[in-house]
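Final report, closing paragraph on structural work. Over the funding period we assembled a curated collection of sequence-structure pairs, and we close with a single example.
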Amino acid sequence: MEQVILFILTYLCVFIIYYFFIIKKNKKRGKKKIIEVTYLVNRYKLDLDKINMKKLLLIISLVSSLDISLAVTIVLLFDSYVLKILVALILMFPIIIISYGIIGKYYQKRGLSKNE
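Its predicted structure, as stored:
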């Protein structure tokens, strides 16, 4: 039960931070894109003219919060600090690649990719 509460609290904290730093600051950023959007555009050939940017940023915030909170919850199951760092490094890359892969495939299936 303690792990579930930790997961939920971590998720909410990270999402609030992402919300204010990603979604709210996007208005000030203008044409400048965040790295997550750049990755999705380059990897999955998404067309930003067809995509609702605010919705995409919200999905990125939700998924990134889930990734971080999942990794934190798993890492805290270990006692050794060295093992925690090792597990965190090993977990983060596959989690991020899989979650952004799901987002990219979602937008591709909706027909929001560039026609080449």
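The chain is about 75% helix and 0% strand. Helices lie at 2-23, 26-29, 35-44, 53-75, 81-109. We thank the funder for supporting this effort.
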